[in-house]
């Protein structure tokens, strides 16, 4: 079981690292339509994971509450939204297609704020993987080893293009290939760390598992609505983003049902 958990926590990080390594093999930056496609795909995976891997299990675990079984999911979801909203306001960061940084004023370099934006984005994904594996360790009947693995694989699949999306622009802005790769990997390192901390916290408050599952879902959906959907829809080629969103959604849904 411990081997399964360690592997599950590392799989998403490996996805980000592999994507960041594209900077060593690709000579040019990603085209706008390609970036929109990859962003839409990532958004679709995250939405499906939020529903099938997090919110539905959260309500199933609270089914003893009868008609109020939605309440832990409702509360946890909003806590996740507010948590990401707070990070968004407190940490200076710059989204990929934005000209103006968000958060408090800062003298941080543009590339640093770009990495911080991706790090904020990756944190809820790590928490999602961590809370699912915490449920598996706790013996939750609603979370299976296959379901937890499906979430880890799904996050890793969408992390691969994300790694390329962060490392390639950094290289285009003048960073060396090694530095761009290192910063891309660093942005994904928050995932296994966040996952491990979530497992440790869940071990102390197992009865709060439905709240933690929905908290991760709320945090992920905040990222999708606040960042990914606007990026995939802005300007031309927005239909590419929608189609890839649909592909990511159905792929993650299929993985969760097939492996769960």
Can you describe this structure?
With 260 residues, this protein is mostly helical. It has one domain. The chain is 77% helix and 0% strand. It is built from eight helices and no strands. The chain has helices at residues 2-20, 32-61, 71-90, 110-137, 145-172, 177-204, 209-233, 238-259. Helix 1 (2-20) runs parallel beside helix 5 (145-172) and helix 5 runs antiparallel to helix 6. The longest helix has 30 residues, at 32-61. It is globular. It starts with a helix and ends with a helix. The model has no long low-confidence stretch (mean pLDDT 85).
Compile the SSE list and pairings.
Blueprint lengths: L1 H19 L11 H30 L9 H20 L19 H28 L7 H28 L4 H28 L4 H25 L4 H22 L1
Helix pairs in contact: 1-4, 1-5, 1-6, 2-5, 2-7, 2-8, 3-7, 4-5, 4-6, 4-7, 5-6, 5-8
List keywords for this structure.
260 residues, mainly alpha
- Portion in strands: under 5%
Largest sheet: none
Which geometry do the CA atoms define?
Answer: globular
Supply Rg: 18 Å
Would you list the SSEs in sequence order as H and E?
A: HHHHHHHH
Mean pLDDT across all residues, rounded?
85
What is the helix tally?
8
Number of domains: 1
User: What is the terminal-to-terminal distance?
Assistant: 16 Å
Number of strands: 0
- The low-confidence runs, each spanning 5 or more residues with pLDDT under 50, are none
Percentage of residues assigned to helices: over 70%
Would you tell me the structural class of the helices and strands?
mainly alpha
């Amino acid at each position: 079981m411990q081997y399964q958990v360690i592997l599950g926590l590392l799989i998403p990080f490996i996805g980000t690292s592999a994507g960041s390594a594209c900077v060593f093999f690709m000579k040019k930056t990603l085209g706008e339509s390609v970036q929109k496609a990859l962003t839409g795909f990532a958004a679709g995976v995250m939405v499906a994971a939020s529903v099938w891997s997090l919110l539905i299990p959260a309500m199933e675990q609270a089914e003893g509450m009868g008609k109020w079984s939605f309440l832990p999911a409702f509360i946890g979801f909003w806590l996740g939204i507010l948590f990401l909203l707070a990070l968004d306001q407190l940490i200076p960061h710059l989204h990929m297609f934005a000209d103006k940084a968000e958060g408090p004023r800062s003298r941080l370099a543009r590339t640093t704020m770009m990495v911080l934006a991706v790090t904020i984005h990756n944190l809820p994904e790590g928490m999602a993987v961590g809370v699912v594996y915490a449920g598996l360790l706790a013996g939750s009947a609603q979370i299976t080893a296959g379901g937890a693995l499906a979430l880890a694989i799904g996050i890793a699949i969408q992390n691969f293009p994300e790694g390329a999306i962060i490392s390639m622009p950094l290289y285009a802005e003048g960073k060396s290939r090694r530095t761009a790769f290192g910063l891309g990997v660093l942005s994904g390192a928050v995932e296994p760390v966040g996952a491990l901390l979530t497992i440790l916290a869940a071990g102390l408050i197992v009865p709060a598992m439905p709240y933690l599952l929905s908290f991760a879902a709320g945090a992920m959906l905040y990222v999708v609505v606040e960042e990914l959907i606007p990026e995939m829809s802005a300007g031309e080629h927005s239909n590419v983003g929608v189609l890839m969103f649909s592909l990511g959604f159905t792929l993650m849904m299929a993985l969760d049902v097939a492996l769960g």
